[in-house]
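We read letters as residues; the fold follows as tokens. Both lines appear below.
***
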Amino acid sequence: MKKPDRSLSLLGWPAFLWFLIFLIGPLLLVLMTSFFKRGLYGGIDWQFSFQSYVRIFNAIYFDIFWKSLKLSFLTTALCLLIGFPMAWAMATATTTRRVVYVFLLSIPFLMNLIIRVFAIRLFVGYDGPLVQLLTWLHVDFDHYVMTQNQILVLYGMVTSYLPFMVFPIYTALEKFDFSLIEANADLGGNSMDALFKILIPNTRQAIANGCLLVFVPTLGEFVIPDLLGGAKNMLAGNLITEQFLKSRDWPFGAALSVVLTIILCALAYGISAWGKPHQEKED
């Protein structure tokens, strides 16, 4: 066996230190903060307590976490249903069109997320183009219902995170052997057989990666629900933000963050385990 190159080991130390200081360090700090009490005027009272974790068992917070999970699962499912055909169309297109499709799909990344969400909000706003069009068509509707609702939050989530689903699947389909689809047809298989017995098994890892890239950030998302959902649509990310910035209850906000991180890690592990090839699972 070849000995590991010492120069490569030395080059890995900066990345390891960066990971340790700016990721593990803050996570440990949040974990420590969750076991203390809230100060009289906010901040931290350095007295050990499980009070913040006991408060999480309130039915209100269970409902908020459940709504966040449902929205994240629905966003991931819609991104997969929309993104898989898009990735298929990109992978089967000519080389010139592939470049154009990748460029068009990358355009949203050239603009800040908040600006994109504000554009959606202005489009459906009280004096926005959509409201003016419906008014011109004499369609009876509530102007205020159009501006902030759960469906609009879901739309903002899907449009913002759809590229994160498309790109991993497109990369896998680009290397896919399409002669397997022709072999399936020659052997009498239909389109459903090609999808569930050939395409999905061979792109399972890419699908899992896309689901992770969508599900993980959407579960903790707070900008899109705050701008498009308003105060009536409280999700886990908004709840944690409120505790740190407005309520100044840092221990409770930290406890919520710890619980959300544990849920994310458990679900991410499940998605990753599903995406592993059969050979790796047997090994």
